[in-house]
Amino acid sequence: MTVDSNPPLGHHFEKLVRHPDEISTLEPHDCQQQSGIMMEECQLPLIDLIGLNSHDERERAASAEAICRASSEWGFFQVVNHGISPELLRKMRKEQELLFKTPFERKATCGLLNNSYRWGTPTATCPKQFSWSEAFHIPLTKISDQSCYGEFTSLRLVMTEFAAAMSKLARLLARILAENLSQQGGMLDDICNESTCFLRLNRYPVCPISAEMFGLVPHTDSDFLTILYQDQVGGLQLTKDSKWVAVRPNPDALIVNIGDLFQAWSNDVYKSVEHKVMANGKMERYSIAYFLCPSYDSLIGSCTEPSTYRKFTFEEYRKQVQEDVKQTGHKVGLPRFLQVKNAQL
């Protein structure tokens, strides 16, 4: 007898709708297809980081400039020659798949990875707030903790190496973005530490319900920047020029996106862009995200004046996001911290 490793997403979703045809209450712009026309697919800016190690100053400057330009114009970009070996990425994916094949009851109750397992959207009150996915969201401080892994001993070794490599890359990119704003590149190193940086292992099971289902609801990231390692299934979408576009998977690249804190800190020079994942009716999808976050008491202020946003701590920001999601069903984010608030917020 086979033990089902999938979370009861369908059962939970059914509670949100009285009748199956109410699934159509998803907004038209949230569909992967509209009137039979496939959504536009985009190729994110592709940046070769090998230029950062060049002996030629112009090549180093060109690579850094490409990172900053993409962060301003897109809020997203891809990197190759990023220093993380293909072998390590393959090992991490293999271990991730084995972990998610664990029976659901064990994932949900046995305390794996700091008891960080989550699935679906317990707070959802309508289909537009529901995510068809499961994840482990682990603080870096726990990744080397042997007691978090049980029998998954090989996962610990691989994930420890993977987290260190992603952290190194994230800090390199953050320093480049800071120096572009005439700030000391190391200042983010002082406030971003293992206690608040995270890895999130994601799995998006096959979704038989609707092509309009979110794997992950539309949102922006509440960090400085995120690095994503994804498979080739696709499903990631972002807003570009006020419309949703699908991101074409690139087997050789990692995806980087700017978070809310970098947008606030850069005084809107860099853009934290809304993005989402659409579920797939035929194939499951895997991804791993690294989140570069500051300590909770870190004060986030704009690097130039006049500032678009008032100063706030990371702890204050996270609490406000959680309260908004609880009260409204969605994240409001940076508009809550504008110097002159929108009267409708």
UniProtKB/TrEMBL annotation:
The keyword Cytoplasm does not apply. It comes from Citrus clementina (Clementine). One of its GO terms (molecular function) is gibberellin 2-beta-dioxygenase activity. InterPro entries: DIOX_N, IPNS-like_FE2OG_OXY, IPNS-like_sf, Iron_ascorbate_oxido_reductase, Oxoglu/Fe-dep_dioxygenase_dom. Residues 193-294 form the Fe2OG dioxygenase domain. The keyword Transcription regulation does not apply. This is gibberellin 2beta-dioxygenase. Keywords: Dioxygenase, Iron, Metal-binding, Oxidoreductase. It catalyses: gibberellin A1 + 2-oxoglutarate + O2 = gibberellin A8 + succinate + CO2. Belongs to the iron/ascorbate-dependent oxidoreductase family. GA2OX subfamily.
